[in-house]
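Whiteboard transcription, Tuesday session. T.W. wrote the structure tokens on the left side:
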């Protein structure tokens, strides 16, 4: 049978594309005008400029050429207003406005909805996508702002005129140099990379065993036990930290009196145990989710072949649930590495971690090195989350949930 195609009419340029582009330009103009203490002028100028830009851009048959023209036009206007930085920002806005003009004029806004969708349904679909995009921008914008500030050549937490003008003298790596050479930062960094791996190993060992045990249908009260084990994720951290303080204080005093252990060593032990408690729920949840699709007949077959429980676990079960175990380990590592409240209660000055030092730096001495540390931690977190996502996809492929 021949495919049935329906040619959708192109939206009106003057009655649809230009007004919506003018509205988008008015919103952007409001932001620029507010920064220059003239919001009304920015709204009017932005609306007129965006409408004219859309009219010019849409006249180009080739989209790539039209978008390039839009970027050049807005870049030139931005250069007249704010120099090099204005040209760069203008070029980016020009690409956005040009894409928006083509998206409206070509009818691509209906591409992801059924052909029989009503105008109201199309409006809701695209409005929902816009709302999601704004929420994502709201969440990610504070993190993005910190990154360029970490290269500030001055000891300020704001953008200097040289930075806004993209002057190379306004940028420097001195805050990163201070982070990697100053003992006030290298010592907490070493503590974080000492405590977090140990707490992760303990969390993975106990959490994996607990998840496997609770996945058995014959375990009595497994739902209640599961609720208790994941309670550190639900209970406010300040309450957990207070309880850990009193518990580990008595435990540390007993170990120091009867085992002769030093206070410094016991401080590390208490922090590692406390962080392990916080990381176990993440391991239990990820491993339990992996065990949902696990074929129990494989362990029974291994037992019939003469393999013991330990050999069956490491040779049969562990390779299949390994993505979930590694994902839980990464979450446990991040939890321990970023945690500050429990360390303040349980640890001492010898166990000062990187988040603790950042918290102290914000309270006692406003050090711009914190921005460099934050940027390093953002990059580190992105790498870990990327690893988690790759492991999740691998787990789905192993369980036959994804074709590729």
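and on the right, the sequence the group agreed on:
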């Amino acid at each position: 049978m021949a495919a049935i195609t329906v040619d959708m009419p192109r939206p009106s340029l003057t009655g649809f594309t230009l007004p919506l582009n003018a509205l988008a330009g008015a919103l952007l103009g409001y932001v620029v005008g507010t920064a220059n203490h003239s919001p009304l002028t920015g709204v009017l100028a932005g609306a007129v400029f965006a409408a004219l830009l859309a009219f010019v851009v849409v006249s180009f048959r080739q989209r790539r050429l039209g978008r390039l023209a839009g970027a050049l036009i807005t870049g030139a206007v931005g250069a007249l207003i704010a120099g090099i930085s204005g040209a760069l920002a203008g070029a980016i806005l020009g690409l956005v406005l040009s894409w928006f003009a083509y998206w409206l004029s070509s009818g691509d806004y209906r591409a992801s909805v059924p052909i029989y969708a009503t105008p109201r349904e199309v409006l809701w679909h695209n409005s929902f996508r816009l709302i999601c995009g704004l929420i994502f921008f709201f969440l990610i914008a504070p993190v993005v702002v910190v990154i360029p500030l970490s290269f500030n050549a001055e000891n300020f937490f704001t953008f200097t005129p040289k930075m806004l003008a993209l002057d190379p003298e306004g940028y420097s790596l001195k805050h990163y140099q201070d982070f990697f050479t100053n003992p006030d930062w290298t010592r907490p960094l070493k503590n974080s990379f000492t405590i977090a791996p140990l707490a992760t190993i303990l969390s993975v060992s106990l959490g994996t065993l607990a998840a496997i045990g609770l996945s058995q249908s014959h375990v009595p009260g497994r739902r209640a036990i599961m609720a208790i084990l994941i309670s550190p994720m639900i209970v406010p951290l300040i309450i957990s930290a207070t309880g850990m303080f009193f518990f580990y204080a008595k435990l540390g005093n007993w170990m120091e009196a009867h085992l002769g252990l030093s206070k410094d060593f016991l401080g590390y032990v208490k922090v590692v145990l406390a962080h392990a408690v916080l990381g176990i729920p993440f391991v239990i949840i990820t491993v339990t989710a992996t065990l949902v699709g696990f074929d129990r007949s494989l362990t029974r077959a291994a037992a019939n072949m003469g393999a013991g429980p330990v050999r069956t676990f490491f040779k049969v079960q562990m390779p299949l649930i390994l993505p979930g175990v590694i994902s839980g380990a990464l979450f446990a590592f991040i939890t321990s590495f970023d945690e500050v409240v429990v360390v303040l209660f349980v640890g001492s000055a010898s166990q000062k971690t990187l988040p603790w030092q950042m918290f102290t730096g914000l309270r006692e001495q406003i050090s711009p090195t914190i921005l460099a540390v934050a940027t390093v931690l953002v990059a580190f977190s992105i790498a870990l989350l990327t690893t988690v996502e790759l492991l999740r996809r691998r787990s789905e492929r192993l369980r036959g949930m994804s074709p590729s």
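Someone added at the bottom: The radius of gyration is 29 Å.
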